[in-house]
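thought: fold this chain, then report.
action: predict
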Amino acid sequence: MIVIYEIISTQNNVIEEIVKRGYDRPSKKNHTFTQEGRSDYIRDLKYALSYLELAISLKNSSVFIDYLRWIKILLKSYNIDQSDITSKIKITLDVLKKTYKQALHPDIEKYLNLALEILPTLDAYTIYEKVDFGKYNNICAKILGALLNLDKNKASEIALDNLHQNKFTIKELYMKIFSPILYELGRLSHLNKITVAQEHYCAAHIQWIMTRLYPEIFGGKKNGLKFIGVCVEGELHEIGIRMICDFLEIEGWDTYFLGSNIPIKDFINTIEKINPDLIGISCTMTFNIEYTKCLITSIRNEYQCKNISIAVGGYAFNLTDDLWKYVGADIFESDADKFCNAIKERFK
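observation:
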């Protein structure tokens, strides 16, 4: 049986045939061919197939449906009609069926047909509501406004002045102010209301404000426990795991934040050197789930690392129940508050 992984990794002729029919010879008169556009088409096709592969592996269509919802919202923000997605799915399915015939894994056809069936009904779920900032609405709005105006100093002043006036704790600043602002930035970017550059500027300077709190975070009494926080390879969303590291520092842990794109061999060497009590792995993008599973398997295969507890978190794991078990983790909670409480209970 031919599965998606083989198509993505070894069947370049199949990918090329889909691209020829979907991009090189489109039916729309206003189509303009560019090499960059073709490369983007191949990238997006492989992304879509990766989501399809994960959904089939989990026997859970929600992962693929969530991707379709996401891409439909994105294309709508650029005034691209749903028919563009439908056409791409039909071309992909037709090429795969003609190429592999009976050798094609049956769930591939099943899930692509499901996508064609459910795509029109996703309209009811694509309304992106503005993030509710709750009791901190005024402060959130001011910080967000300052960041969107590229005024990092004003944003920092608002956040730190209110913190030092005891209007909230560091944990509340992260969870009730910074996190909702980051979600709102993601929403605005997805809807094409702000540029990617604006989103990245704002996120980077939220991290900058966080670094200004380090004298208050890193000065407490230690409890002897050690934590390594890392983003899975290819993952660029690292603020969440940084926040977890800071929360655990406040609780007395020694934390080691390694960022993203760490080669597995180097990461395992670091684990062996530090000998942590807990490893935290962050994964936001669903197509990185398999990388997360591979990373955890590699850790478990090392004798010195196999008994270390591993926690996972991030948007990808909130899509479907037990995804954290699929990758081989020991601990998962849907948000930082629940995670920290679970860690306290586990290591008390």
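thought: worth noting. The two ends are 49 Å apart (CA to CA).
final: tokens above.
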